[in-house]
Design goal:
three-stranded antiparallel beta sheet, Ribosomal Protein S8, Chain: A, domain 1, 3 domains, Hypothetical Oxidoreductase Yiak, Chain: A, domain 1, alpha+beta, 40% helix, Wheat Germ Agglutinin (Isolectin 2), domain 1
Length: 347
């Protein structure tokens, strides 16, 4: 079974549930907009399927509705910010707005955001930056059940630790590279599990450290845990560790070094670097060279069984146009979980 929903319907449903969980209407609407945009962008792993976990996290006390950021250090072009376990869709935007203003003022800004609840799709923040003509780099760690194995290891030791880079490209659409350092995002395993699908080989190991195609090993809350692999073997592993150290240790948000638990909150910390090419004096050069390089890449002949060369950000923009017309598809298990979440907060 499956359901296809118009984006407007999903926004209203999610906002209603988030509000019932304790958020003021404006916060609930902003969280709903963010989650639905992830679905529209083709990233169902970071979309409305997160609502049941958010509701559980609020009920457990690990996610604090109506909580904004607190600036712990204001060094002009260097900011320390505590998100105080508020919704990442709120605190991340607040932090980015402050950081972008400083980058425009000073030419650059280093922003350390700690202790946010799940920030969602990190590409959202890069899109905010490139819309203002800024370059942005983001390194994020995850404080939650460790579901990714170190290269050469046999169990989960850290999270999916995303990395994201946004680059404005003049008159053409921006470059927005956003990826988990795990082979795939944890949420994609939840989607596959709810659809009753197996996943390709090379993504997962089971509780014995052996390869498996069962996404349940990182989704089921009961029983032995398996783990996701990093992308690119030791290269993805190296970047994942860098995200943990920069996103977690340097920001003060903390790193993961404990046994797994069943808490539902997902805490993120993020190191963001923002650069204003206009202040650097290279805005025109960036636009010209970006266009020339993009044209050069796209002139490459199509590989066999390929649709041709794309740049990061293009698949998301295409998905938004398509899903805005066709609606957002949800599997029956995910839809039932969302409905069950609403019942938990309906008084």
């Amino acid at each position: 079974m499956s359901h296809t929903h118009p984006a407007t319907e999903l926004r209203a449903t999610v906002a209603r549930i988030i509000e019932k969980a304790g958020s003021l209407p404006a916060e609930a609407a902003q969280v709903a907009d963010n989650l639905v945009m992830a679905n529209l962008s083709g990233h169902d792993s970071h979309g409305v399927g997160m609502v049941p976990r958010y509701v559980d996290a609020v009920l457990e006390g690990g996610l604090k509705p109506n909580t904004g950021i607190k600036v712990t250090l204001d060094g002009g072009a260097m900011l320390g910010i505590d998100a105080q376990q508020g919704y990442g869709q709120i605190t991340g935007v607040q932090a980015m707005e402050l950081g972008m203003a400083r980058a425009r003022q000073h030419g650059s800004c280093i922003m350390a955001l700690s202790r946010s609840h799940h920030l969602g799709r990190i590409g959202h923040f890069a899109e905010m930056a490139v819309a203002q003509g800024l370059v942005s780099l983001h390194f994020v760690n995850v404080i939650s059940r460790p579901v990714v194995a170190p290269f050469g290891g046999g169990d989960g030791r850290f999270g999916t630790n995303p990395c994201c880079i946004g680059i404005p490209m003049g008159a053409q659409a921006p470059y927005v590279l956003d990826f988990a350092t795990s082979r795939v995002a944890q949420g994609k395993m939840r989607v596959a599990y709810n659809k009753g699908e197996q996943v390709p080989e090379g993504y997962l190991i089971d509780e014995h450290g052996r390869p498996t195609t069962d996404p349940g090993v990182v989704v089921r809350s009961q029983g032995p845990l398996g783990a996701l692999m990093t992308f690119g073997e030791y290269k993805g592993y190296g970047l994942a560790v860098a995200c943990e150290l920069l996103g977690g240790a340097l920001t003060g948000g903390g790193t993961w070094h404990q046994q797994a638990d069943d808490r539902r909150a997902v805490l993120n910390s993020m190191l963001t670097i923002l650069i204003d090419p206009a202040k650097l004096g290279t805005q025109q050069a960036l636009a010209q060279e970006a266009q020339a390089f993009a044209d050069w890449l796209r002139a490459s002949p199509c590989a066999p069984d390929s649709a041709g060369v794309q740049l990061a950000g293009e698949p998301e923009r295409a998905a938004r146009a398509r899903r805005a017309q066709e609606g957002i598809w949800l599997d029956d298990a995910t839809w039932q979980e969302i409905q069950a979440a609403e019942r938990k907060v309906t008084r």
